[in-house]
């Protein structure tokens, strides 16, 4: 069952399933058809997000348990609503309460769950054979042993356990011979004495795991993680038995109608995403054959990449739309000014693509060397099987492979035993071509001659029939395909986008490096393709993972309409506000410039620079963002080796701004200049999200203004009392210009959703037809029709003119509409077959007469965006 509109809710101990149930009536009144829940399966104690699952077979008691989930489903059903559930098949939390993981650590390769997790039981290090490398210690193993951080303990539930920093780990059967009482056995292994320490060391060495310093993870890890998070272990759901175990609860809830759809987290992390999607669809159909399964996948599409239609899913979770609508709002002429300004400011003349590749190189050499080395070892074994390739060394293979990894332009390939499809072949052709350039190799150079061999081994040709070669080819392809997704995510979203910041509104999940804008015709073409191929795809403009809120991005996008003034202002502050810090090079200009963008973009609506408490709260939030941004950039500091002096200098720069009234006033003045334009952009992307093909997804609370930053800031508590009050007291058409309280945005969402409910077929199956715009400001209008049978929906939004519209020059809360004097003869051109005598203005909730083409000033009378409906008879 395809939802009409979803609302994403973040569940945790502070907002449980019962708390969600208390808001069902609100979301029903807003017009939502399905609540889209963050993972509900049992997570590690204290989890704030639910992605650290420890038991796939139970609803988390911290959320209220299964009874609470059933009560929520019943309350939703009573309002004509349903539930969509986010599930996590890719990984589980590494935790003592994870029974599967505990059993693996206790029994090693003999564990019934040894195949559940993606563990290399025969790694390159012979001392790790049959063991799990556990990089969990705060210091080197020997230091922890000497300090007494490692101990033998006993508890009633588990018996004897080993403890590291108070976390328990199992004792393998047969490795501990109790000597007398429990007290006596513990005393014999007391690390405070040399003999006890030696016995404890011997006991630790006998286990099926090796405790190690956390810094050894990049070089020595021998199991797949989620990205580079050592607390999350990869799960092998490609195994049918493991698939069944992981999905038993979800399928039971789906069979009973408690859950009506699924969102798949990080599908690119799986060994076979397409095979997984097919298996899941078949399982859902088997338990509920009367309803077409609704499945969306978290898939980050690269520029011009298309979701494989063979997966037979409804679409993505919406990052592609978030990128497209964001790019649409940015004026293309700003690119030169912004790029040249950034180069002058930073002294870095490298292109965004070269900088992105530098981030990828950093990640494969310093963050994923163990994963890369395991793939190289597999390829080396493969090379030894053929006389034609047996001369290739591990060093040569690594050099060529690394170039391919740096150049790979998408999250992953989907080649299988048959080889690559046309889309995959095109991607890999580009990757290998760029790798050759990076290697700067010539014929006769080993790396040059190795590239076509790697191309064949990594999906370029079908798998051979020879069992030994086939097994190694399968392993190599799987390792390659499961290495490129975390490499892509960490290099782009979590490194490059924190380094390269000409305009931070384009540094968002789903965006391409260096991509600023998207032509309106291309935006509409992509929307039409989505309507044809994936009409059930989610359309998001905010998520629990976004880097900055949708209205932060909308406000910064308006700066591109006068990019020169924007850059001159911020670069001047970057220089002048650092001038009173003689002899200090910190923060670097790039870090100052990105901080100032963040202050302007995220400055809360209505915050006065004289509001000491409000400013302090805001500066605290920005300070948390600043520290995370600096460490993610991995230039002057990082998570592995923090440079606290540099971090302190950056924090001092921010505090100096907060302590200087003139600087706060300057920031507030710049915010005022962009507040109105940002509001118009925010309403434009909201209207587009609800009217183009797809299913609009509302992230909790974002029906009001969203000036959040990266997590955890984007997961703050929602003020439902204020939202309820706003919904009960919507602005009248003549009051929409008093926009600062957010009710205008909420009213827009509610009116769009009400129309979607009344015209379900139009939105589910209606085609999208771009409309011609004529007149003086035709380049500043985007207009299209949705058509289905006689039903018509006209949508009009302004583009790249928000700073020059009269409404943009007024103070916040006093916006006035742009009328005929501004729009002049600009008009929407309708074909005779689509021109009615009368229409209904959805936003004003009033009839409007139509006589010929539609003047834009008549469409944008009070609201800065327009949506009209009519029925075309005859």
UniProtKB/TrEMBL annotation:
SMART domains: Aamy
Entry EC no(s): 5.4.99.15
MF terms (GO), sorted A to Z: (1,4)-alpha-D-glucan 1-alpha-D-glucosylmutase activity
Domain Glycosyl hydrolase family 13 catalytic: 6-442
InterPro entries per record: GH, GH13_cat_dom, Trehalose_TreY
Keywords for this protein: Isomerase
An annotated GO BP: alpha-glucan catabolic process
CDD domains: AmyAc_MTSase
PANTHER family cross-referenced by the UniProt entry: ALPHA-AMYLASE FAMILY MEMBER, MALTOOLIGOSYL TREHALOSE SYNTHASE-RELATED
Name of the protein this chain belongs to: Malto-oligosyltrehalose synthase
